[in-house]
Amino acid sequence: MTKTYDLTVIGGGPGGYTAALQAAERGRKVALIEEDFLGGTCLNRGCIPSKTLLKHAEVIESIETAKNWGIETGDLVLSFDKMRKRKDDVIEKLRGGIAYLLMQGKIDVYNGRGTAVTKHRIDIKTQGGSESIETKELILATGSSPAIPPIPGLQEIQFDTSDTIFNIPEIPASVVIIGGGVIGLELACIFQSLQSKVTIIEASSSIIPQEDEEASKLLQRELKKKGIQFAIKTTVTEVTEKEGVKAVHAKDDKGETHIYTAERLLVCVGRKPNVSAAHQLDLQLEGPFIKVNDQMQTSVNGVYAVGDVVGGYQLAHAAMSEAAVAVSNICGEHENMNNRIVPRCMYTLPEVASVGLTEKEAKARGLSVQTERFDLAASGKALAAGHQIGFIKLVYDTAYGEVIGATMVGPHVTEMISEASAFMYLEGTAEEMAKMIHPHPTISEGFYEAALQIVRKMRA
Ligand SMILES: Cc1cc2nc3c(=O)[nH]c(=O)nc-3n(C[C@H](O)[C@H](O)[C@H](O)COP(=O)(O)OP(=O)(O)OC[C@H]3O[C@@H](n4cnc5c(N)ncnc54)[C@H](O)[C@@H]3O)c2cc1C
Nearest-CA neighbor of 63 among 193, 185, 166, 162? Predict the structure, then answer.
């Protein structure tokens, strides 16, 4: 007999497993279909492997810095096998955690490829065969995959994407990375710390062009100091390979041709949504993404979509938040997705974190805003830790001093950005931030210092 569910979720990444767990908590009978490993891109080939290896990069950097502080160790010896094993152990542990939660929630997990034949019938192709289930409602959380640009020669050579790079057998002597976005830059930091020669080719006029301009410039300057080479405003025209050496032919903005060679070529030019599970539903699209409204409903009643497959920020916490919104609406609670406060974190060395509007975005929207910046060079804790490069910048509205955006560069700012998010969530002002007692000495005191400057300016 065909099994029937209140809700079926296709995709077991952060969007999918969050949706399944939250619906089960509310008493719904739930099926989750995942064709690969539980945890999706984030756990298996994204957030977690990259952050595990970036921790290694941070340790390597600390060892190098310690030499100048009178703390000597022997020569640096790197075992990539052991690093990869630690990364795999972390992933394995977390996968087990998700499986356990799904089991506790009495969710039926199908390991196979799901296809929505209608909005109520889902076919599942497993290794051993196929089966069908019936469902009242459906959430598509099928995520995204690395986009492969149509560069001449690319399909004829071996190249990596974020799907393959975490499992390469050895540290490469050199890597050329096409794409200076978040993923490309994080991977650049990993390989640079492992002593690979790293070159980043970016077609735009700056790295992370959507972020605060000063943050982008500071990050590029710091990464350059570490030895990462940048070819900005440079477009790749062709790639070739000879005796294992990849050659990337590119043209800069002056029309000059350059050839960058490396042992490995890593393509990080964005991500395309996985929409094939929903082809037969004839859903409305927005560009390549599934179109949804603020309740995460698609154009077909009873079908919801969340996470990377709908575009937007393409971040794990955005996917989880969208999943919570979709489930609330399925349960009749009428909730809207709030995209105003989605923190954006880059775990590069130094880290960059931001939330809300940049000054440029706020001005483009016609808002009357100003900014205040506190440099970490004036922070006792940052100096003590040897991390004095960076800043905390607040964007505030000139009428009430309400904090409407923040950008931070420096150590652990990905942890600290939540203070700015909390203020924005509660519509807090710079005056309130300046009154809040911050512990001393901490880097987060920079919020207090920047806010105090805003209060002084507004009083003047
Ligand atoms: C290198 C890298 C680093 C990243 N770092 C961060 C970070 O630090 N922080 C952050 O917030 N985000 C990060 N991201 C982005 C993050 O991984 C994604 O935003 C997040 O995984 C999206 O979640 P999702 O549930 O929408 O999709 P996914 O995690 O992609 O999960 C979708 C799942 O659906 C499955 N699936 C697809 N089609 C079917 C089908 N037909 N049947 C069954 N299963 C199917 C896939 O196998 C996959 O497991 C990173 C991404 C990369 C690539």
Answer: 193
Mean local confidence (pLDDT), 188-193: 98
| CA 296 – CA 137 distance, rounded (Å) | 13
pLDDT in tens, 367-415: 999 999 999 999 999 999 999 999 999 999 999 999 999 999 999 999 9
Taking alpha carbons only, the member of 429, 382, 431, 427 closest to residue 408 is 382
Cβ atoms of 325 and 359 within 8 Å: the answer is no
The tokens describing 132, both together, are: 């069908």
Provide the pairing of β-strand 3-10 with 30-34: parallel
* Residue whose structure tokens are 């309400």: 402
Q: What is the pTM of this model?
A: 0.97
Q: Which atom of ligand 1 is nearest to the CA of 315?
A: 19
* Residue in this structure with the two tokens 């996917």, named with its chain if needed: 319
Mutate to test the pocket of ligand 1, among 10, 41, 90, 352 (most ligand atoms within 8 A of CB): 41
Q: Read off φ and ψ for residue 119, nearest 5 degrees.
A: -70, -10
In this structure, what token pair is assigned to residue 357? 């509007």
* Per-residue pLDDT tens over the stretch 109-159: 999 999 999 999 999 999 999 999 999 999 999 999 999 999 999 999 999
162 Cα to the center of ligand 1, angstroms: 11
Q: Which residues pair with 131 in a beta bridge?
A: 124
83-104 pLDDT, tens digit per residue, is: 999 999 999 999 999 999 999 9
Please compute Rg for the chain using Cα positions: 24
DSSP helix/strand/coil, 247: strand
The residue whose CA is least distant from atom 37 of ligand 1 is: 142
Could you tell me where the DSSP H helices lie in 172-263?
182-193, 213-226
Which tokens belong to 104? Answer: 């506790």
Tell me the catalytic residues: 440
Tell me whether the omega of the peptide bond preceding residue 49 falls within 30 degrees of 0, making it cis.
no
CB of 451 closer than 8 Å to CB of 392: no
Among 38, 42, 304, name the best residue to mutate to test ligand 1's pocket (greatest count of ligand atoms within 8 A of Cβ). 42
**CB burial class (10 A; 0-12, 13-18, 19+) of residue 338?**
exposed
Q: How far is CA 430 from CA 173, 337, 396, 455, 457, in A?
A: 48, 26, 8, 7, 11
On whether the CB atoms of residues 99 and 109 are closer than 8 A, the answer is: yes
Cα separation of the two ends of the chain: 76
**Ligand 1 mean position, distance from CA 41 (Å):** 3
Q: E strand or H helix at 103, and its extent?
A: helix 80-104
Residues 309 and 153: beta-carbon distance below 8 Å: no
SS3 346: strand
